[in-house]
Amino acid sequence: KEGGGVSAQNKGSWSAFLKSIASFSGDLSSLTAPPFILSSTSLVEFSSYWAEHPSIFVAPAHETDPKKRALLVLKWFLSTLKQQYASRSEKFGNEKKPLNPFLGELFIGKWEDAAGTTELVSEQVSHHPPVTAYHIQNKEHGVYLEGYNAQKASFSTTINVKQIGHAVFSIPAYNETFLITLPNLHIEGLVFGSPFVELNDKTYITSSSGYTAKIDYSGKGWLSGSKNSFVATLYPTGKERDTLYTVKGRWTKSFEIFEGSKKGSSIEVYDAESNPITPLKVAPLEEQDSMESRRAWRSVAAGIGSGDMDVVGAEKAKIEVRQRELRQKEREEGRTWERRYFSLSENDKILKELGPPIGVTPEEDKTGGVWRYDEAKASALTLKSETPLFLTPTSTMTKQTTKGSVQ
Ligand code: HCR
Questions:
Q1: How far apart are CA 208 and CA 319, in angstroms?
Q2: Integer Cα distance of 13 and 19 in angstroms
Q3: Whether the CB of 145 sits within 6 Å of ligand 1
Q4: Numbers of helices and strands, H then E, in the chain
Q5: Does 161 sit in the ligand 1 pocket, CB within 6 Å?
Q6: What number is the ipTM of this complex?
Q7: pLDDT tens digits, residue range 229-267?
Q8: CA distance 292 to 105
Q9: Is 358 left (phi over 0), alpha (psi -120 to 50) or beta?
Q10: How far apart are CA 403 and CA 407, in angstroms?
Q11: Most buried of the four, 139, 233, 251, 338, by CB within 10 Å?
């Protein structure tokens, strides 16, 4: 039974799981969870949560006042939280353990709605440690987002997850860049068998135009008060006391925007529950590249769907064996896996300029470096295909990916 705790049938495996996590720390992908908590969605798909409301994503491009633009970027960021952190538990009644992406795994799609076309590319750029990088663009409105993330887990009373990495939102028309840090989280409801995510601590969004937003998730929610609460303030960078705007509410429900430090009535109310998402369009499986997530995992996903763990095990093993073969071949040939869309950035300019005011330094040891979208690589791929967004298996595969196909 999902949503209301563990069924009698799953009780044994759930208590064994709880015992096993008490001594767990490190890489979440090594966590062995009971079958009923397994998701058939790979973590590489999670990058799509950043732009499921394309009109909110592109809105900052149409604001000429930089402080209001910073507010619109903050509003967009807050609007993504419900999908990022609560959509699985809202859909299934509990959080699930996603599939652990393999190196080079891709998730490609686009949103088509009133905001025009918004395109997504997500790629697993590292397997040990697991790191996912993504790029989202709406060329018509001139809005771009890129980033990468890894997670480090530890256990003390529950599973605590520290997010490593950051996102970069940019509007070239204003020559403006926003550096965004990612929230840490923990899992609640573990003892009842219906885990869900709660956010902790603080995150920041700081802009090259001189504004910073601080989002504080720790005020309420963990031990008392309303779930998923936050308070955010926007101020000129370095002058935290000069609050320009305050945003307060719950990221799963609604939040209000106030001028200054929340005196008087709000200037806007955002209702997260009544803002429908635009579904992402993904190419049909048969048209997908062999490295694309849903195609690569389809047999595993079928096994999870039908509850056949033998199939899940056997199909996962095929992917793992293939991956090991590829790594072995690379070692023999003295090369490394060529990422399709992302490259490492040395002495990254964005982090140098925007990192210090919000304490961001690249944690390269935990992400294998600073990953940035590589326009040159991406357009080279485009040249090989008539349908650049949806790579076709034969026309766009590089030498390496031909060998990367799942057997
Ligand atoms: C922690 C988590 C995997 C990582 C997921 C991340 C941090 C990935 C990047 C996205 O942008 C945001 C995001 C959202 C998810 O909420 C977060 C996942 C929640 C649970 C999952 C664990 C690995 C699952 C542990 C198993 C539990 C259910 C017992």
A1: 43
A2: 10
A3: no
A4: 10, 19
A5: yes
A6: 0.98
A7: 999 999 999 999 999 999 999 999 999 999 999 778 999
A8: 6
A9: alpha
A10: 10
A11: 251
